Amino acid sequence: MKFNSLVPVQVALLASAISGQGKDIRYNVIASPESPNMSVAVVVDNNTYILGASESATLLYSGNAPIAQVGYHYAIVNSANQIHATEAFSRAPFQGESTENEFFNRSLSTHQLSSLPQVYKQMPYVNRIESDLHILNQIPTIQIWGNQTEIDMLHKEQLQDLKFKFNVTYYGLNDIQTFENVKVSLSGRSSRYIPKLSYTLKLKSKGENSLYGYKNLKLRALGRDPSYVRECVSYSTMKSAGILASGFSYIRVFANQRPVGLYGLIETFQDPWAANVFAGGDFNYKPGYLYQGQLAGPNQSEHIYSDLSYYGENITLYSLGQYKIKTGAGKKEKPDDYRELQRFTKFISSANNKTSVDEWEKHLDTIVFTRAMAIEDLLGFSDAYMTLVNNFYLYNNPKSPGRYIYIPADFDTTIGTSLYKMDALLSGNYSQHPGFDIRPLTSKLFSNQILLEQYQHVLLRLTQQLINPTIMFPFIDSVVEMINPDIEWDQSLPGVGRSEKLPLSNTRKFTQSPFAPGIKTNWTSIPLTFDASLNGPTNSTDTESVKGFITKKSANVLAFYNK
Ligand SMILES: *[C@@H]1O[C@H](CO)[C@@H](O)[C@H](O)[C@H]1NC(C)=O
Ligand SMILES: *[C@@H]1O[C@H](CO)[C@@H](O)[C@H](O)[C@H]1NC(C)=O
Ligand SMILES: *[C@@H]1O[C@H](CO)[C@@H](O)[C@H](O)[C@H]1NC(C)=O
Ligand SMILES: *[C@@H]1O[C@H](CO)[C@@H](O)[C@H](O)[C@H]1NC(C)=O
Ligand SMILES: *[C@@H]1O[C@H](CO)[C@@H](O)[C@H](O)[C@H]1NC(C)=O
Ligand SMILES: *[C@@H]1O[C@H](CO)[C@@H](O)[C@H](O)[C@H]1NC(C)=O
Ligand SMILES: *[C@@H]1O[C@H](CO)[C@@H](O)[C@H](O)[C@H]1NC(C)=O
Ligand SMILES: *[C@@H]1O[C@H](CO)[C@@H](O)[C@H](O)[C@H]1NC(C)=O
Ligand SMILES: *[C@@H]1O[C@H](CO)[C@@H](O)[C@H](O)[C@H]1NC(C)=O
Ligand SMILES: *[C@@H]1O[C@H](CO)[C@@H](O)[C@H](O)[C@H]1NC(C)=O
Ligand SMILES: *[C@@H]1O[C@H](CO)[C@@H](O)[C@H](O)[C@H]1NC(C)=O
């Protein structure tokens, strides 16, 4: 890496300036001074050394300076070499050759997180690559950079599907990686209507460039969750319950030099994802079909949804847009690529309470599905399979063709934020979870007495061993302590986009089926502060705080089973 202006200038006028302390070490800090005529400095025992900006990774400032005797901190210096802004804390003297890539105004780079127990083991068919993509106790930085006009267009035209090629630089604590020509677009549907936007990143598919083995990523804005922890808690719960899902970690996002905020980094399920999780990253792995249920296509007129109903032999009815195919189809997807999904729905439709567990097992990994439905209930997922036939994936594993693996995704309306009435989601009686008894897969599967008992057993075990205050709160508290300074930072940043009203056509579509009973008619909610969203009280029967939800739900479930 090259650095310009690498001249450690001593600007402090101090008589006691330490000299002759032996060899210098290298200081590295990620920062974004508000004006290009400002620079970044390290202040070592009261002596200020200007750092140089990296040419290729423009948020990184580095330079040599002595090892501190007492301590050091970073500062932003104006063009007259006066301190413009400074860290209000002192960092302990660093003895190595080169510091990690520290972040301006964050005193810690690696945090102590309390962990969640592994209640259920991951399934044996999962063979995930070892990867440093998600290190939950660190917050790396990612910078999308390129033509500013195009970055502005992407943000201004937030309701359109614009795609641009930008470069992306990842700043880990000990590594910096730049990817050229990354396809960047905005992601999400309802999440486009808020000023803090979410992004999809597609790294070039050819070649070995990947971020720790992954090429398709999402930067989740967490913009509808004032607690910032709902997605983190949901993904961590999936992991503890041995359910295959994306990993999750926090990341800071910049667009050129502009800070955009604190985000969640997740994986999207295009190649090489299936190879990464089922085949240890084998380049020759040929994935099976990975179907996505997304409720309905964007412009879909027919009232047919991704509820796994059998719609007869007319394959067109499977490709209206309610399902998508993520892997397994050729370059151009054909209606026939939905045949296998159709076969699965036909089986579900033919099943009844006499269908044996063995027969079910030929078509579905019932263990994982049961765990996933338990978490849907226990964490109050309101935009998922049971509630809204949305945000789920089904993988046809080539190693056991026709036996689907359920993969849940997209956990923003969970743990107390809801499209449904809160009392239905808080009920300790799983039968009252909206959709439980009407969705083809849950109603058929759990009409089998053995599988229903299994479901009840999983619900109770997960409540006792995971989804309760004693076990979850220490984890949540440690995550909150880590992200607290970044939340404050995030909230101080103006959004890159605007608030937009959800269009009427969208809401009209949503006022009829496919909703389960209990759907709210008014989705507007009173904005909550971070504290109210995390700890409560929310003073609302519509919304629960994260901790309020977990407390009430686990108590209700235990009371239900004690009856
Ligand atoms: C530095 O840049 C700011 C605008 O970004 C400008 O207002 C200020 O005058 C500049 N200062 C100097 C000394 O050039
Ligand atoms: C730094 O400056 C402050 C205020 O002038 C002084 O009290 C302190 O002793 C100095 N520290 C070092 C390590 O020189
Ligand atoms: C990406 O980086 C390369 C190499 O630094 C540069 O040539 C190219 O112009 C950059 N692309 C964009 C979109 O800025
Ligand atoms: C930046 O993008 C705009 C819009 O695509 C284009 O008109 C302009 O030529 C680009 N500028 C550069 C320097 O490539
Ligand atoms: C949906 O309709 C809009 C407006 O008619 C159109 O711009 C858009 O391309 C359509 N999207 C799809 C996926 O067909
Ligand atoms: C299949 O369904 C589509 C969409 O409803 C319809 O247009 C088409 O006529 C149907 N085909 C047959 C053979 O029924
Ligand atoms: C199974 O379903 C049949 C028909 O709906 C019903 O009559 C019967 O009571 C059910 N048996 C059990 C054990 O639920
Ligand atoms: C649970 O809820 C279902 C559906 O509302 C109801 O039929 C059942 O009686 C409830 N069970 C208990 C034990 O309350
Ligand atoms: C540093 O972060 C704190 C909050 O953690 C904030 O109050 C302060 O303004 C920040 N200082 C600078 C110079 O950014
Ligand atoms: C919807 O809920 C919000 C927040 O509770 C409230 O301010 C608004 O008046 C409600 N709108 C309707 C149409 O009831
Ligand atoms: C809830 O009500 C209490 C008591 O009136 C008040 O102190 C608190 O600020 C309210 N919280 C919210 C989120 O409105």
Automatic annotation (TrEMBL):
InterPro entries: Spore_coat_CotH_CotH2/3/7
Transmembrane domains' residue ranges: none
Endpoints of the signal sequence: 1-22
Superkingdom, natural source: Eukaryota
Entry keyword set: Signal
Name of the protein in question: Coth-domain-containing protein
